[in-house]
Write a structure and sequence with these properties.
Radius of gyration: 24 Å
Strand content: 5-15%
Shape: globular
Helix content: 40-55%
Number of helices: 18
Largest sheet: 5 strands, mixed
Number of strands: 16
Length: 456
Amino acid sequence: MKRFLKFASYAVMMAFFTVALSGCTKKTSTTDARATKVIVWSFEDPDVWKPIVKDFESTNKGYTMEYVQQTLDAAYENKVLNSQLSGTGPDVWSMPNDWVYRHKDKLVPAPTAITSKVNMDEGYVQSIKQSVQIDNNIYALSASAEPMIVYYNPSLIRQALSDLEKSTVSGVTYERISKMFDPVPNTWTNFAEAMPYLTKRDGDNISIAGAAIGSDNVSYPQDILYLLMLQNETKILSDDLKLAMFSLPSSTPVGTEEVPGKRALEFYTSFANPKGANYTWNESMGNDVEAFVNGKVAILFGYDRLLNVFAQKYPTFKDYATTYVPQVNTEPDKIIDYARFNAFGVSAITPNSAIAWNVVHGLATTYSSNITSASRLYGSYKYDSYEIGIENRTGNNPEKLELATAKAFQKGRYPGDFDANMRNAIRAVNKGTLTAQAALNQAADNITVLLRKETW
């Protein structure tokens, strides 16, 4: 994400917020229509919000709600901030979960009336707390969380198994490999072993890729790397968010030291290394989603929102299914997934912070089903039970079970630059200009500078 406002704009904006929050501005009259209206900006179709608006207005007499559909594009953040400067912005607005820390100074934390009803540890899945709770304050809530999942092409997997059965491998080997594809490998060890059987290549040239992974030209390269880092027990940032730690060594159970972040980066980039056994993807394959739709790649990493892309852009494409991302450790308490989502926060300049927070709380509870039914996701609250064992990670409905084990983390005030530095590290290793350790060192140094910046 690029920084959308120059330093001067942020200086003006922060000066505005300081005055607004100090109480020095003219108070809004209770007869002013704006004082009895809650404006909400989010990304769902207006029809999704009609019952929410109706219920809100019937249970909050004297208040009205105005929903304004937005598009989460490169202009959205700038649009929100400019609207707040002009005093015409939303009271409640939706943002990516890694924006919450970035914009916490422009958000009203949840009041006691809300926090007394919200138990972040027992009531919500862990990725919510990891994104919205800062210094014991809750700055946003979400109706849902969206774990990373695997999309796969059943036809390509069946063809790979058929080719293997016709080959000279032993029956024992065929049986072992075929068990991995049920429906796809559920561990990264098996995933790597399966790539040569799924990949069709002539030297460095690939005609069919086993998976879109390994380079920075796939849809979510940094997210897959974060997943691998978390699964490898990498401490990504210091607790005070002042130091990038993913390049540093940590002690192992046997008393040695290693760099788990390096291991994650080396493993990720191995799938784009023509000299390695895992080689299955390169930049010449082009866009990973188009390659998947065109039957050029068997496995794709993405989020549930990709279903909308298929439906809208590729309506005739049906040869796919979804399942769980692979794991490093299969012990139930070591299974880790990765999530991203949009969260609702309350603008610091709203005249209606109490009622606006009631709306946000309602979106995470009472109105959650309205939002999740439209997005086909599950609610962010914890369900009564989860079957977390690796043996339960089968079938084509991974989102609900992954919610229990999905993690997220705060990236500081520059999440877009954070992600860009991680993509640059991947690219440097792919190009051979830096070793994995050197690439991580460089990314960590750059990110630490961003974490410690005192000004915009």
